[in-house]
Here is the input.
Amino acid sequence: MVDTLIIGAGTAGSVLAARLSEDPGHTVRVVEAGAHRRTTADFPPELTDSSALPTAAGAPWLWQYPVALTPEIPGQIVRGRGTGGSGSVNGCYFVRAAPRDFAAWSREVGTRTWDFEEVLPHLRSLENDEDYGDHAGHGRSGPVPVRRIARPGRLAEEFAATCLDLGFGEVPDWNAMPGGPDTGVGPVPCTIGPPDSSGRHHRIGPAHSHLLPALARPNLAVRGDTVVTRLRFEGTRVVGADCVSGGQPETIRADRVVLCAGAVESAALLLRSGIGPADDLAALGIPVVAPAPVGQWTTDHPEIGIEYRHPAPAGGAVPLEYVLAFDDIEIRPYTVAFAPDVHRMGVALMRPTSAGRLRLTSPDPLVAPLIEQGYLATASDRARLRAAVGLAGKILEVMSAQWSGGAGEGAISDHWLLERLGTSQHLAGTCRMGRADDPRAVVDERCRVHGVEGLSVVDLSVVPVPLSRGPQATVVLLAERATADLR
Here is the structure.
């Protein structure tokens, strides 16, 4: 019997394991479906190079899921698998969610728990901002290193200069007080180390900043290559989890279980364990432990990919060195090459009004759930993206780039958008946070699952509103906030 069993050693699981095990009297056990890497040297070079997006098909450090972007358009999403999770394969982007996101979050849970003023002390304590650590609202003593690229590549420089010429303001620090600017162009805060002798940076994800330094503690045990098949209950209290490791079944008993497996796997595990829509579970022959709207509301950031040609060489210190943000749009000039001699600009809708859902098609843990993104289902989402693509096209034209967008916003049809529709890979909300009387809510404001005891979910699946910025900083914050409630 352990005090806390954490399922998933990704971003949230790494943070929680390190923080909870600071108490030598609190035993923590972590199980991870992917490989467990015990030292920095155990990480493949692809996972340590901050300039890469190591998301090629078939990579052993990825979960890959088929999705329906719309009812007619299939797609695929990937998630990190193994120690560090998606924090070991992402673009190192570490921008705080906007104050209006936190205000909307608090409204959903009916308290001020998630107001920006309430979470700011945690945001400060977790970061070591090498550029602005001594400024108001920042920190310099936390475990997460934050840097901006001092010498961006030619493409990022031309993009930023063009945005300034078009009248957008300069944003030196997206995480500046009083909560970050809403509009402008500026360098992306990144979780990377200092440049080495060749000028390259290392990706420093949550495994490096939190979990690896804690592995020597006798009260912390981590096991990889272990698939959790279902949770165990006595009545409505969780008492552990059934696992398969090395082909052998095992039951791990725990006083408390915390799911940190991400928006896909945390939701799927709840459903397999009998927590979900009662009719759906019954149709799959899964006994109902507690009815809950697991998977019934999901959100993500739909993204239009614009391919173009430009004489600047591909490559940069990170996949995204600069970003332009305004209203609910981010325009992203990626430095990574998605095709030979072709650059890509992403136009992402950060607060979509369309929503999707996730559901099981089988109780078998090896069968991926069905994920329906529901992208661009509303006229307002399509209109916002058309206008944003029109602006992106103007930026490209000023940069003397070649692209096939037509002659301005009026020429951008819904069909044109759908042909280029993709995703920012930020699936959230499958285990939505909210009040007990909210028919969409799965967990309360402290991440505890409604209707059962001893079970929490701490990852992006609980976030109840679309975030105006990428989610990595918010997931670290979630785990930091949850620590006090789980000790």
The chain has a mean pLDDT of 96. The chain is about 25% helix and 25% strand. The longest helix spans residues 379-398. The CA atoms of residues 25 and 219 lie 7 Å apart.
